[in-house]
Amino acid sequence: MPANLTPSYLKAEEEYRRAQTLEEELRCLQVMLQEIPKHKGTDHLQADLKAKISKVKKELAVEKSSGKKGRGLRIPRQGAGTAIVLGGPNAGKSQLVAKLTNATPEVAPYPFTTKVPAPAMMPYEDVFVQLIDTPPITDSYMDPNLHGLTRAADLALLVVDLGSDDGIDDLQAVLERSRATKTRLAATSYLDENDVGVSYTRTFLVPNKIDAPGAADRLEMLHELCPTDFPEYVVSAQEGTNLETLRAAIYQALDVIRVYTKLPSAKEPDMDRPFTVRRNSTLMEMAELIHKDFVEKFKFARVWGSTVHPGTPVKGDYVLQDKDIVELHVA
Questions:
Q1: Average pLDDT score, the chain
Q2: Are the C-beta atoms of residues 177 and 150 closer than 8 Å to each other?
């Protein structure tokens, strides 16, 4: 991307990648165009942004006139973030979701048990992460809803079947399907600097069924025939092998922090339900999550945390730290 991009641009870019409605896309694109530095190095991107804005406005007009939503299935974001679970037939996606969450998806040893994307909540310490189970991807079919859901996700878990000789072929089919769309899998999440419509979602490779006969040999063959730069977590969903390591990695990949709140009239903070915000978020950004009145009437806050003395008064630009306790004061 061009140099000297403002924090406001980068925030809008991240929100655009995760947008689930045309209205959200348009708002983010307009902020990106407003915030992008104006020089020759950004001429191409400026033109691309203007073209995208024009296209989204036309799509919005068609959507409003027809009354039909044009972005397919939408699953509201919940918890600290969202990870979408992708893979070929019988890779064990539903069993993985079942073991990591309290959900009870249908699990069976035949393909296409999961027919539509379905969310579930994965506990991690005192927060939850949203996992989305999905129908299998093959060389001839990919549920059209997966494009938008993968784009909007913070993380993709690409599950590989080590219990079958077809697992590597199935993985290659998923990767080829991804490369043929504008929603692609990568080691990090970003937008293509030459086309902001092309989005890459951070991906973990999750070889599953390591307990199956021949799985170790298939894993070695996978590395030889289908190498990727994705971080890898080898598991057995059925036996529970390495699931806690994967659970922690999913949460850490979201790059969020937990912030606890305390009422001025209360002696103790609410330690049961923390807010989760992006790392390096400010106090004012957290206040926006609570209620707009906290932003409009904000006076100051007191913070208990690792980098300040207990009860230190701070302003709205204070950068929050993990496990801070915040007491907001409003007019």
A1: 90
A2: no
